[in-house]
């Protein structure tokens, strides 16, 4: 039974790895509102359009709202990139979570302070 489980698990990992790629890490730490980085830190408004350079990043248009979930830490200070998802007015849902340049948004409302420093992992920079 254990052998079958291991074969299944090995096959699952192989299939998962085939469909995606681990990209370079943008930082080794991130600031979050909680240990799992699942609570929104703030709401930000896009100041201009942004077209993602690769699958780690999200696209947005000027004026769109973005929920911010983490801020990458670079040398003990908030880094150039934040992670968040675009709020879509037409369906009241959040979009895909990805990174974006913090310089292209203006933080409008803070929900929870980003006081938890969490190490990033390879999965933080995984692309499908």
UniProtKB/TrEMBL annotation:
SUPFAM superfamilies named among the record's database cross-references: SH3-domain
Superkingdom of the organism of origin: Eukaryota
Signal peptide (UniProt feature, chain positions): 1-20
GO BP annotations listed: cartilage condensation
PROSITE patterns, per the entry: SH3
Gene3D superfamilies: SH3 Domains (2.30.30.40)
One Pfam family per UniProt: SH3_2
Keywords for this protein: SH3 domain, Signal
Protein's UniProt name: Otoraplin
Species of origin: Orycteropus afer afer
Lineage, uppermost ranks: Eukaryota, Metazoa, Chordata, Craniata, Vertebrata
């Amino acid at each position: 039974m254990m052998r079958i489980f291991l074969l299944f698990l090995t096959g699952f990992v192989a299939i998962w790895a085939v469909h995606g790629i681990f990209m370079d890490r943008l930082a080794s730490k991130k600031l979050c509102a909680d240990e799992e980085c699942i609570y929104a830190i703030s709401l930000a408004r896009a100041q201009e359009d942004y077209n993602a350079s690769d699958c780690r990043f999200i696209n947005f248009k000027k004026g769109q709202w973005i929920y911010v979930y983490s801020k990458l830490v670079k040398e003990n200070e908030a880094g150039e990139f934040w992670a968040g998802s675009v709020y879509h007015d037409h369906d009241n849902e959040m979009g895909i979570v990805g990174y974006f340049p913090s310089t292209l948004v203006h933080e409008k409302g803070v929900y929870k302070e980003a006081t938890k420093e969490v190490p990033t992992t390879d999965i933080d920079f995984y692309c499908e």
